[in-house]
Each structure stands twice: as C-alpha cells, then as structure tokens.
Amino acid sequence: MHTPHIRTSRRTLLTLIGASLVAGPLIASQAATASPAGLDDPAKKEIAMKLVSSAENSSLDWKAQYKYIEDIGDGRGYTAGIIGFCSGTHDMLELVELYTRRKPGNVLAKYLPALREVDGSDSHEGLDPGFPADWRRAAQDTAFQQAQNDERDRVYFDPAVRQGKADGIGTLGQFTYYDAVVMHGNGDDSTSFGSIRRRALARAKPPAQGGDEVTYLNAFLDARVWAMKQEEAHSDTSRVDTAQRVFVRKRNLNLDTPLDWKVYGDSYHIG
Questions:
Q1: Class of domain 18-270
Q2: Which residues are catalytic?
C-alpha cells in the first residue's frame, strides 16, 4: 500500500503522447529494433515490475495494485493503479478514455467529464464520493487491467526501453530509464527524464557513443538523485542508493537474478 513518504509521482506527465513522443528525446533510432532483447524480455519485464512496485507500493506483488487508489496529498489528486496514474497529471484521464473506447458504458465512463475538468489540479470535484469504490470495481475487470498494462507500456515502459537500446545500455540501464520516467515523466521541466538524461550526457558518453556503460550509468544515477532532491516528495533517494546503485556496483548489467536490494529501509529479494 502506498504511503505519502514513498509515493513517487511525476512532476510533469507525458501529456502529448503520439507526435510529441515520436519527436521527443525518448525515441530511439530504427536500429534499436535489431538490438538484442533487453528489459522487454518477458522475464526481465516481470523483474522490472517488481522492482518498481517495491518502491511504489512496498510490495513485490505488482498485480495486486490494479485496485489501489488514494489521494496521498501530493497535489496530484487521486493516485491509482499499477503505475500510479494520477487524476491531476493526465495519464489517468487517458487510461479511462482507453478503457471506455474498449468497453463503452463501463463503471468509470461516467467520470470522464469530471476527469477532464480536474486534469492539472488536485481537485476531486465530480469524482467524490463514488470514484474510489468504482475504481476498485473496475479493477476486477480484466479489460481494465489490460488497459492499465497497455497505458503503462505506451507512456512509460516502451519509450524508455527504446531510448535505452538506442543509447547502447543493457537491461539494467534500461530499467534505470524506466524507473526515472515513472517518477519524473518526460515533460519540459528541469527534473524530467529528458533533462536528467541530458545532464548525464554532459558528464559521460553512453556505450552508443563509445563510452563505458558503468561510468555512464553512474552519471545518470547522479543526475537522477539531483532531480529527486529538488522535490520533497522524492527526497528519499533509497530506490537509487540502495537498489539501482547496488546492481551497478556489482556490474549486474543484465539484471540477472538473484537480486537483493532495499527501498526505504525494507529488504527485498528475487531468486
């Protein structure tokens, strides 16, 4: 279950997917399609989901989070689902729109006007009192679960993996990108994923540019920690310091199991 001190909501969400994503810094070269399997390998992707859930939900059971919903007081309205879709940061609206296109008349469809009104704010107007209960009802529907999976992939996972492959970084590096996009989004502010990556590139070259992978990953994580410390909600950097840094120090660039890490003082293991 989320608690306010561990929630990692994004400063700026990818509100313009489609064309902006094609033109934006997350897009990889076409050569990436020929790259070897990385974080998008099904077994590695499952590990990624568990790693993120350990930080977002203090649990490795990421599939239990479809039904999760609460307002954690971070200024982003309701936070819900497997990736922390927020009513104030556009991605929750897009999720419910997708679900409604696939299943008209679903239990959440009636909230679409309210979700459009509160987008960009922390308001619950038009959502209370029934929205949380209806979200949990919807989460029992496999169609809604699939919609959450698909939006997670479209907005966060797939673009991060493409960019990682384009930069020549392996499975672990692709995960560091994904986790950063989940937390920071890829907007135009100084703590977005794109800004974090640019800050790293100013200090080290990625393998695709002839650089050393470990050196570059450390530069990226340094930039990530800087970005996290710019906002109180992210000031605990243990998801980097005692998780991702551990894997980098061990040079586990393929994110091979077993994995042992800590987040917010809690220990986790994947065998």
A1: mainly alpha
A2: 56, 74
